Amino acid sequence: MNGQPPPTGEIPEDSRALYRLLLRTTPASTKDLAVSLGWPDTRVEASLLILRDLGLVAVDEGGGIRVGDPRMSIGRLLDRAEQDLEARRRHVSGLRESLESYELDFRRSMQLTGQRLPPFEEVTPMTAPQMVQMVARTSPGPVCQVTPRVHTGPEHDPSVIRRRQESMQAGQQVRTIFRLDVLTDPAWRGWVESRAADGEQQRFAEDIDLQFAVFGNSVVLVEESAEPDTYSLLIRVPVVVEAFTALFEEYWRRGEPAPRADLPTQTRRLLELLAMGYKDEAIARHLGVGLRTVRRRVADLVETHGVQTRYQLGLEVGRRGLLD
Asked: How many beta carbons lie within 10 A of that of residue 176, not counting itself?
């Protein structure tokens, strides 16, 4: 063994058997232990060396073998194992945080040398959050995603959530289509509504199964299977990205906004003023906000309700009874 114990907490089966015997018969000699276990002396000595290196037994000058209170000796072993585990976690966390910068360096180098990025890349579940952040940051334009399965995926990673919130605050458009049945689950409906509160534009549809996200006009990330721990596929082929963009727009056209009977007070007041024929300047004065804010909110309502004009917005609001 050369004085090197096995990884902390990993005690070979022979050493465990010897340790249990020592707890019952200490003090003992190597020959006594060999007889009790029916082992050759060399096997006992090898197992004993491991226990000694782990600090579980002590050998005196006369060759006598003693064990201490296992609460103390095993406790020290557990403390060391926890320290090693924490060190490994810090190491993994550091690698995870560095992955994106390594990726950016790699891609910058490829661009400088004239090399082309591969048209297809497999993305593991472990690296998916970093990949999503990287392509979102390096692909200008809106993020359009179809999410039929809300319980899995990089969307739940805290770093991805922070990135999405920050990008929307900075003005990036994020549009997402969910399955309609997510609205019947109170837990997941709350999750979807929290994303809408962050600024995400949403639609809901019944007949969506393929999970994918289009970043700008350059990259699409497709989930290959609904099974857990499966790979996703990152695609940069322009014609494929265009096809997925067209598919998303068709899903979006067929989708419906979430039925909301509980409109925020200011949104309800804005719709009421629009219905009464007020101009944007007058609405801004009534609501105590800027003219740009009014126009942005009206544009968001037009987009959310899937209409083209203010007149159509009024008809849609009336059809759904949002101001009744």
From this structure: 22
Q: 3-class DSSP state for residue 131?
A: helix
Inform me whether the pLDDT recorded for 5 exceeds 50: no
pLDDT in tens, 196-207: 888 899 999 888
Question: In this structure, are 126 and 229 located in the same domain?
Answer: yes
Q: What does DSSP say about strands 174-179 and 143-147: parallel, antiparallel, or unpaired?
A: parallel
Is residue 32 situated within a structural domain?
yes
3-class SS shares of the chain: helix, strand, coil, % to 5: 55, 15, 30
In angstroms, rounded to a whole number, what is the distance separating the alpha carbons of residues 309 and 302?
7
Nearest to 130 by CA among 100, 89, 172, 88: 100
Phi, psi of 302 (to 5 degrees): -60, -45
Range of the domain at 299: 265-319
Q: Give 141-172 pLDDT, tens digit per residue.
A: 899 999 998 888 888 888 889 888 888 888 88
Q: What is the pLDDT of residues 96-126, one digit of tens each?
A: 667 667 766 776 776 677 677 788 888 888 8
Domain boundary among the residues 211, 228, 254 is at 254
Mean pLDDT of 210-233: 84
